[in-house]
Amino acid sequence: MPIALITGITGQDGSYLAEFLLDRGYTVHGLVRRTSTLERSRLQHLYSNPAIYGKTLHLHYGDLEQPINFMRILQRVNPSEIYHLAGQSHVGLSFEMAETTTDSVAMGTLRLLEIIREHPSPVRFFHATSSEIFGRPTLSPQDENTPLSPVNPYGAAKGFATQMVRIYREKFGLYLANGILYNHESPRRGENFVTRKICRTAAAIKLGQASELRLGDTSAQRDWGDARDYVRGMWMILQQPVADDFVLATGILHSVQDILELAFQEVGLDWRAHVRKDDRLMRGPESTTLVGNPEKARRMGWVPSTQFPELIRWMVKAELDSLSRAPRTEDPA
User: Fold this and answer.
1) Which entry of 15, 94, 104, 130 is annotated as an active-site residue?
2) Structural domain boundaries of the chain?
3) Which of 12, 160, 267, 299 is the most exposed place for a label (fewest CB within 10 A)?
């Protein structure tokens, strides 16, 4: 039975990856920070299942700022695969938390690489990096050879971590892979991300639990995909005979405005009657035209299964169901 260790298991990607690996017969161990929410809502269905938790799913308290504790966990678990998903991942917040972002994303990854370098058993390591490492690229779409040019603290920290993975792979001959992930969404996305915010507020307005949605720039474009497709890609990357870097992307650009119109269409409302522009929500320096070229990933057999309109409809329906079952008193806008 293969054994996997996931950092960031309580996040969107970590929870979907845990499900994916459990379905394939893995024993899954997850690293949980002591500051993480106690209910671990994204894992609740697994955590509360006595046939799974404590048998094929195990959670361990640990923090990448304390590498000795992680070293002990690694020695005890002795996984064949490590999926490194942890770290502050919100671009806007990285300007307000530049030092915290750099420590968790850049130095946290370096600490893991040092531990793996000294680990006596071979292990395959996946690092979830980001399209934000490309910043303002001169070429579009971007691929694995596009030069790094980040324009925000998160992108800069991910760029450092990405390069260190490459350096340690070449220098020490370790199985270390980068997955360069473009934006990917689901109903488990954090509520401070614009996709989730739009879908949740549209549903809340439909149910009479909110009155308006405040947004910044709706013309911003990204390459958005389904998080479930992306965790499948992570696993596929670690099954390759030789460690390498892969772009995971749809190759198609959509705007925030597209999300807005699809979400309100799903609930049968005119977005113009409910959306207000808020200059306070305008972001700092923006990455531009970040659209990925997934050709290399396609050659290993990875193809996204969800189209963009289907993704947004799924997210809105999930919000309608969630808010109908447990109405919130606060306005999610």
Assistant:
1) 130
2) 3-184+224-248, 187-222+252-292+305-325
3) 299
- Binned at pLDDT 50, 70 and 90, residue 40 comes out as low
Chain CA centroid to CA 178, Å: 13
The domain 3-184+224-248 belongs to what CATH superfamily? NAD(P)-binding Rossmann-like Domain (3.40.50.720)
Cα–Cα distance between 261 and 312 in angstroms, integer? Answer: 10
Topology of 187-222+252-292+305-325 in CATH?
UDP-galactose 4-epimerase; domain 1 (3.90.25)
pLDDT more than 90, % of the chain:
75
Annotation says 170 is catalytic: no
Lowest mean pLDDT among 5-19, 30-44, 78-92, 123-137: 30-44
Distance CA 260, CA 202 (A): 8
Nearest to 182 by CA among 226, 245, 140, 151: 226
Which listed residue (19, 132, 185, 266) is catalytic? 132
What is the per-residue pLDDT across 222-264, written as a single tens digit (0 to 9) for each? 999 999 999 999 999 999 999 999 999 999 999 999 999 999 9
310 part of the active site: no
Label residues 226-243 b or e (16+ Cβ within 10 Å = b): bbbbbbbbbbbbbeeeeb
Q: Lowest-confidence range among 24-38, 124-138, 175-189?
A: 24-38
Mean pLDDT of 10-14: 95
pLDDT at residue 284, rounded to an integer: 53
Helix axes 308-325, 194-206, angle to 10 degrees: 50
Sign of CA dihedral 79, 69, 17, 169: negative
Q: Which pLDDT score, from 0 to 100, does residue 202 have?
A: 97
Catalytically annotated residue among 26, 154, 168, 230? 154
